[in-house]
Request: fold
Amino acid sequence: MSDWKPIVVGVDRSPESAWAAVMGWRMAQSAGTTCHLVHGTHEVTAIPISQLLRVDAGRLGQQLTARARRRLDEALQGSVPPQALDTLDVRLGRGVWALAHAVREHDAELLIVGGKHHSPPARWLGGSTAQHAVRFIDVPVLVTWAPRQAIRRILVAVDSSYAATPALHTGARYAELFAAELWAVHVVEPLPLIEELPIHMDDTAHERHAAERFEETVVAALGDTHVERLVRHGSPASEIAEVSAATNADLVVVGSHGKGWVDRVLSGSTTERLINRLPTSLLVVPVHPAPGESTVLRLAGAAPRARAGQPRTTAQPAVP
Reply:
């Protein structure tokens, strides 16, 4: 019996949506689970309230969903398998809320949406379905980018927080599903320059300790599983995007820290920067700290050293 729960795919009439539907259907077939296509239509909000008061709400809802279904069928036919289109569920309501309800009703473990590159004003004013899904839906969200015939290489972004281990576990699970190579990358950010801080922080020691922590985290999470390791320096979003392109990764896995929705909306994150530039398909895994677990990162000087005989991740292996 499969240990995979159902998959929900958010669809509209865009080519990106068709790619997401195809990937979701293929994943469900490989995982031995079900795939459900869901679309939320909010055209009712464009109808003046004076007109809404004169019509039968139930009949109006049926007409709107039927029209949306016809349009979706026309747009997706030929790109999406007919069996997948048979699962199409059109609901009244804005996209992210319709998807959230569908995820809950199906007890889904994964939501897939098509990624689209929006202009900066569009992102600032309205965001995107992918951004809203990552902010508000508490299951992993896969944002697809460009059609993929197969997932052959998976890259896990590993930071120094409690989100690292769940991200590695998820990456390994998907690598097993797709029979894909598993890679892990850790980006060492520069130490902040704080003149008033009465502690001397050495950049070299900071980078060495970060690499050692990265190696320990990978080994503790995955044991003897073969994982190619990379250590980079700089801005996480930029470096992860560059490594994704350099390694020809088909899927990037990142752990999203369990912040409240207000924090997610106001502060942004490395995850959202990756969604905006979307170098490849991106799987965002929401992670919350365990009760009593500290979210404060260790200072470089307090980091544990690698165990004797354990290899250090200081060099970057050649990229094919």
Remarks:
- Confidence is low (pLDDT under 50) at residues 121-126, 261-268, 294-320.
